[in-house]
Amino acid sequence: MGLANHELPPPPEGKYPAKDHARKVAHFIRDDAKNGEGVIYLEAQKTHMVEDDDQAQHFRQRRFFYYLSGCSLPDSYVCYDMKKDHLTLFIPAVDPEDVIWSGMPLTPKEAMEKYDIDDCQTSDKVNSYLASPETSHSTVYAIPKQIADHITFLSFENKNLDTLRSAIETCRVVKDDFEVGLIRHANAITSHAHTEVMKMVKEARNERELMGTFIGACISNGGREQAYGCICASGTNAATLHYVHNDLSLSNKYNLLIDAGCEYECYCSDVTRTYPLRGSFTKESKQIYDIVDEMQTQCMSMLKAGVRWEDVHARAHEVAIDGLRRLGILKGSDKKEIFDSRVSTIFFPHGLGHYLGMDTHDCGGNANYEDPDPMFKYLRVRGRLPAGSVVTNEPGIYFCRFIIEPALKDEKYAKYIDKTVLDKYWDVGGVRIEDDIWIKEDGYENLTTAPRTWEEVEALINGWERDVSAEESLGRRLAESVLQGMNLKF
Question: Where does the record locate the signal sequence feature (predicted)?
Answer without folding.
Answer: none
